Amino acid sequence: MPWHTTDIMNQRTQFALRALQTDNFRCLCREFGISAKTGYKWKKNFLAEGRAGLSDASRRPQSSPKALDEEEIFRIVSLHNAHRFWGARKLRDIYERSWGSAPSESSFKRVLRRCGLSHERLKRPSKMPGGRIAHGRRASACNEVWSVDFKGWWNDGAGRSNPLTVRDEFSRFVLELRHLPNGRTETVRDIFAELFANYGMPQAIRSDNGPPFASANGLLGLSRLSAWWLALGIELERSRPGCPQDNGAHERLHKDIAREIQELSSSRAVSDPAQRQAIFDVWREEFNTQRPHEALGLKRPAEVYEKSARKWEQPEPEIEYEGMETRKVASTGKIKYGMVSYLVSMALRERYVGLKTRSDGRLEVYYAKVLLGHMDERTESFQAIEQPSEQKTEKTGAQAARASQPSVSQTQGGTFLGEA
Fold this sequence. Notes:
Blueprint: H1 8-19, H2 25-32, H3 36-49, H4 70-82, H5 88-99, H6 105-114, E1 145-150, E2 154-156, E3 159-161, E4 164-168, E5 174-178, H7 185-199, E6 204-207, H8 224-231, E7 235-238, H9 248-262, H10 273-289, H11 301-304, E8 325-328, E9 334-337, E10 340-343, E11 352-357, E12 363-367, E13 370-376, E14 381-384, H12 397-404, E15 407-411, E16 414-418
Parallel strand pairs: 1-6, 6-7
Antiparallel strand pairs: 1-4, 2-3, 4-5, 8-11, 9-10, 11-12, 12-13, 13-14, 15-16
Helix pairs in contact: 1-2, 1-3, 4-5, 5-6
């Protein structure tokens, strides 16, 4: 018969007493449903220790060579208190750099969990990726793509804050975290002028579709700021409207800022914008130079990032259109050709566009390297380039524009468009 846990000690005692008197030990073991080896063990323990010898001994080892001592636990907890939102892997990397060898990642997790300093994360279903009218460029080197956005408003002791964030997509290096008095084009342009002077220029800039980075109702979404980027030879990458996951890494940066700065701002003595900016600067320095990033093999962004070889020239070189007629866009957003004025884009006012005659008599209108649309003298109209729908996943609008335009060569004087 099997032994039940509810009366196991009573059955073991009964077996041991009968084992001292039986003439057929193996038959007794079969009656209690145990092996002869187990029976001899209980008989031996009973003779040596009495009834106490029949209880189960703890299987826990008397000593563990891998057990953490008090000093190690103190270091782990201290690191967590200094970096409340960092995970066990990042904390272990800091520990190893500071004190040499470090306990395992699982030991970090166990200590933090037992101290009530962490909890299991809920796994959320991943979102399906989608297409977008853009080049679809993903950074494979420093300065290939910069991403930019505003964090979003919050209030602290100094009033409302809506910091501008700019980062290098490949290295995760935060180029700028700056409180701005407003989000006007001129204000943001001044920040980028400083960034270009300090770090050089990227190949492309990724943004959402909001101002001042883009214009929801403008031609190809162009704004005055993005038109300036194009004039400098910087390509545009935009996420789909209402799809922040298209710029997910930048959104994750904003999540860290929200947890580590915004939610804690009420407990900090912030009385003026200068103090607020000082907090931003300290956080950015720590993010770039101290915080390990798993996507970088636990390296710091500052260990990976290198300045761009594309230097920013001053004064800004004018765009030249080889083999094309040029027209200056008036303050009204129109260009004049013959006796007719064509409305092109307010974002391009005071800038030059190139006109190329097609075989069907229509004129292609280019700005920098981008085909904007066509002018038809017969109907005296300007027709913007047709963009595919959001669901279309073959060629994007920008790719179709590049495929239909002449080849491009770069010179010191600016961007030239020549015959292929």
